[in-house]
Amino acid sequence: MSLTAPNEVVTKALLRQVNVPGLDRPAALITLDNGFDHTKPNTFGPGGLTSLDEAISAALAADPAFIAVTGKPYIFCVGADITGLPQLADREQALEIGRLGHRVFARLKDSSVPTFAFVNGAAMGGGLELALHCHYRTLSAGAAALALPEVSLGLIPGWGGTQLLPNLIGIPAATQVIIQNPLMQNKMLKPKQAAELGIADVLLEPADFLERSLEWAAGVVRGQVEVTRPEVDKDMWAGVLYFARQTLDQRLHGAVPAAYKALDLLETAKDADFATGTAAEDEALADLVFSEELRSGLYAFDLVQRRAKRPAGAPDKGLARPVTKVGIVGAGLMASQLALLFARRLQVPVVLTDLDQSRVDKGVGYVHTQIEKAVSKGRMDKGTAAKLYGLVSGSVDKSVFADADFVIEAVFEDLNVKKQVWAELEKIVKPEAVLATNTSSLSITEMAAELEHPERVVGFHFFNPVAVLPLLEIVRGERTDDATLATAFAVGKQLKKSSVLVKDAPAFVVNRLLTRFLGTVFAAVDAGTPLEVANRALDPLGLPMRPLALLQLVGPAVAYHVGGTLHAAFPDRFGVSENLKRIADSGQPIVVDDEINAEVAKLLVVGDQPLTEEQVRQNALDALAQEIRLMLDEGVVAEAQDIDLCMILGAGWPFHLGGVTPYLDRTGTSERVTGKRFLPRGAASLAG
């Protein structure tokens, strides 16, 4: 059976002999390198695994003092070549690719010659599993990403990770790395965290990482360096997994098969021998390779890794103007978060203004407090902190914006207030300064209509919390020019955000869809559906949070305001819920400790036509399908892929749904509601 992947970029395992002081014979150093720079990381397909297999054979034949595996600059290996997964013809081929990886990696684990992984850079998935098979591991403090992210894609760590990791660092930490982190927007480990967990034996500085790794390895071989690891506590194993399963049930409700298979494999790892455990990994991998969730996960991964880096419709970046100073109108929480982000990423002066000095001082104080916290937690050095302190300032006098190149407002969400702000600022700022608004729903075109230079106004919609959510909706008004837009995209890239170009339409993308979604749920409540039933209705999708928890996060008052904006624009599809207004006016939390607040429930005035969970769910999905089709017809974004990218990055919708349109396609909702699919068959689903 051939496992050849015709499009595989083969990562070669390059072997060389290295003389290390203090050893009587050379060490064998295997360097993984696919021939490209760090922007195209090393991955393993059949060709790469075969190359590594051959290098290990050659290394062992040379009778080295030890064998070490490292990567090209900045990259160790980021795992399997997932682009080859859709090319697997059948379950047997899936089993074979799992077995091949296990067989090759196990040679390092079972070697009588000491084996080391010198993890010099990003190590994810199969790359980290390769390192786990080695007897010892050094880790660079400059490694950018460390993770076992497979569950986020709809897979499991399939080359030994579920068996090796819990027996190295214990079941609580392994469950976090293998299941919890992937389901938290694919959270990465920092090198220090990985070392503290026990994944690495020693953490070394990046400047001379290879030299120090070789010295450390030589010390281990000579017996001068003793590596001790704490004994793994197996008494708590069953309890941890029981709690983890309960948590998955509460959060995912069975919607992510990969997470449950990973739990089963972690359970196997407690007592099973390694061969039994890895055989179970092979079977689980083969089961998942042909699942719809994996196809959606691969589609979502491609969006985040490729499309997000090449925004559709963005103008020529050569038109962007330099930004040497940023002004922020407002000093509230959102404005303060923006100030810290701009200062950290752009490394230019940032000045906040507000109506009085106490508000300005509070805003600047928030920034300083966050900097202090970062230093105290070891996430920022004192030199960087001192620089940021000097970059962020505040004033009640807007004349401080006179030399700013980029001014963004984060004031009260009222069109007249924002128009007044820009009318005042236009007389102060220089002619080429970009005027950006963080509005979540108001018209950019209307906001700029009365300005002398409306072409320099652009929407710059962040999502809260600003430091966490990576989406930036960049909104082009009817008169926004290319230079302004190009500058906005350039700034978004400097801020390390994923920018999506959006037409100036009510509530743009994420807020429009979430408002339609929540509006449908609340319409069911208004009709008489109990809050508990409406809240559970979407559980089969495995969304990051239930509707009422999402509403509480957004804020009922904000949701009611955005809903009102959309009702004015589209009264036939966006209703106004008086019950939502009652909740907003009450100021009470809707959910307390995952339970519906009984006091809030008493506020509701409802009808006598309750819906079932299935009816609520189908109404919500139908509404999403209809709204997405209308948005695409209106040209709010270029393609359905941009809708999905926005929902993944701005609303945290999971990879296993592919955002939203693949799920609507595979459940038949798209065709039933709109008459056609959003994506070609096979784009994010099994072909056919």
From TrEMBL:
Q: Which UniProt keywords apply?
A: Fatty acid metabolism, Lipid degradation, Lipid metabolism, Lyase, Multifunctional enzyme, NAD, Oxidoreductase
User: To which pathway does this protein belong?
Assistant: Lipid metabolism; fatty acid beta-oxidation; Lipid metabolism; butanoate metabolism
Q: Where is the 3-hydroxyacyl-CoA dehydrogenase NAD binding domain?
A: 325-504
Q: Which residues form a coiled coil?
A: none
Domain 3-hydroxyacyl-CoA dehydrogenase C-terminal per the UniProt entry, residue ranges: 508-587
Return any one Pfam family short name.
Answer: ECH_1
GO molecular function list: enoyl-CoA hydratase activity; long-chain (3S)-3-hydroxyacyl-CoA dehydrogenase (NAD+) activity; NAD+ binding
GO biological processes: fatty acid beta-oxidation
Spans traversing the lipid bilayer? none
Q: Which reaction does it catalyse?
A: a (3S)-3-hydroxyacyl-CoA + NAD(+) = a 3-oxoacyl-CoA + NADH + H(+)
Q: Which domain of life is it from?
A: Bacteria
State the family it belongs to: In the central section; belongs to the 3-hydroxyacyl-CoA dehydrogenase family. Belongs to the 3-hydroxyacyl-CoA dehydrogenase family.
Name used for this protein in its record: 3-hydroxyacyl-CoA dehydrogenase
